[in-house]
Fold each of these.
Amino acid sequence: MKKKYEFETGMYRPPSEGGSASLLVRLTRNCPWNHCTFCAMYKSQKFELRSPMDIIQDINVMNDIYLQVKKISVNMGENGKITAPSIGEFLQKTPELYFHPGISMLFNWLAAGGKTVFLQDADSLIMKTDHLVQVLNHLKTVFSTIERITSYSRSRTIARKPVFDLEKIQRAGLDRLHIGLETGDAALLKKIKKGATAEDHIKAGQKAMKAGFQVSEYWMPGLGGNSMSRDHAVNTARVLNQINPDYIRSRPFTPRPGTSLYENASKNELERMTPKEQLLEIKQMITALDVTSRICFDHAGNYWRAPNGRLLLNQGYEGYKLPEEKERLLAIIETGIAGDA
Ligand code: SF4
């Protein structure tokens, strides 16, 4: 009987996670919260946990594909390297995989050396700790080249997990957590229906750091409009100062189709900030930071231009290191404020 190669691949991963060179392993489907008013990512999709056996089966199928391509590569005299000719020959034998949503991802990952993995979808830590550990152990045993495993998780979920469980998960190989802070302002968190309080964010961030994870916190400049700008900036810095995460990543607010904030914007009922006002808010937030984090603008939404027409801010994944580069970063932002940005 002909072999069936079936495995699931979700839609999203953070840009900083290996570009197209990350293996995507789907642990859960969609978001268990799904109420944030700015977020269109998993709207109308039902959240589902996947069983450890189903996930392990996906990992085994991906490994099986790898071994098949490797064998072809050896037979072609290519020393088992994952190359275009060996992939081509494999796909000729398995045309049903041409349209598989995850096949290019898998080949890109293998060709790039199989180093980084991102666990999908929105909140992997919502899995039972033992199930997650079982999956991580299997993943690392099957693919010995893996150097880093990362995932999204919600503050509310992390805040509820015992530190002992978080440590167990970290020791099993999950290295980095990407957390959507959005804002540290209580009123704005409520308004956007984040489902987490500022205290949840602090507790989760501190616990994740204590358990040994690298923590990447995302905040959303412009989210509260001019009327909430000051509180948004100051309280976001206040929360981040108490976490001192490894990374603070800026994701400026844009109303996305399919969200209630987009509907408000189309009816002219949403307070929007100008590029300059957004930069003033960012300046205020960064000025109030007292952290040793890296501040990153690694997304096209950080679109401001310098007077010479180039991008104002470095969009690299490692960004600007605080406190060393704080004054330089603030000076750069000041040039954007002074110009047309
Ligand atoms: S928790 Fe994250 S994925 Fe879920 S709705 Fe909010 S922003 Fe979107």
Amino acid sequence: MEMNAEIKALLVSIGSANIDEGLLREVAGTIPSAGPGAGLESFFIKSGGHRVRLSVNKDSPLKVVRCHSGVAVIKDEIEIVTGQLEPVLSHCPEQAYITISGRCINDCKFCPVPLLNGDVKSLDTILRLVEEANQKGNLRAISITSGVAKSAEDEVKKAVDVVKVLKAKYNVPIGVSVYPTETSSEELHAAGATETKYNVETMDPEIFARFCPGLSLDYILKSLEKAVKIFGKNRVTSNFILGLGESDDCVMSGVDQLTKMGVIPNLRPISPHPLRAVEVGVKRPSPERLLKLARYTRKALEENGLRADNAETMCLACTGCDVTPQRDV
Ligand code: SF4
């Protein structure tokens, strides 16, 4: 059976699977180095025009096994979907998605990056990683993200330098997701970035204050507004996490506010990370909630003349972790 929106929502809601190591080695799973899934080995399944990323978890209720047409996902001893394991270029299929700084001075409570204290990649390392991805073939986009190692200004400067060099070398769209600064949109756009993402994380001000101490939701919203003016329609996105305790009403009014501004919300299920096990109140959304909110977002996008399926870089192009409007529903 091929994947459909309902099956994808079920898989995304669970978010992990038990998979045989030999099978995994065939496509060389990836370890995300940024964002809420950082540090967990994962793999991708493509089926019926949908793609899903699952992290490897021996205790997951899902099991992925080899079958005649590729792989099958088993739940409660029943085969729920078949598909193909998809090779990863760098972090995800068809993209070189590179994290500049795998560390962060901020302390968003859902994110393991501040605790991972990962490396800060040099320009040479980034160029090598992108070229390795390019050599694998079918490189359709380059995406750049970063934690904040020293300051947001410093990360933007590094991203600008990286984009300039990559733009001159590769003829593919480049997306950048960083913490915004006063001039980040102008600088990244002038350097050659085609899409940008500044994450609101949540549109509930009380939850934002609790989970992202020291950061400003108002500032991010103002930065998004400016980014739309500079990058244009369908070129600005924002991650909005599901599962921090926000209500559906909060999500829907947040989606309305963002889409009216010309920003495409990327509803992202929370991945409770072992390093953040002590944080309370996070809950991965149910399949029904994922479908309801993705369908609502699709309607809001269409009412505001926006197309998530035009995205060329980053998560809206990948779709692995989310139920993506206009692609999955
Ligand atoms: S949806 Fe985004 S975070 Fe998830 S695998 Fe794809 S690019 Fe990475």
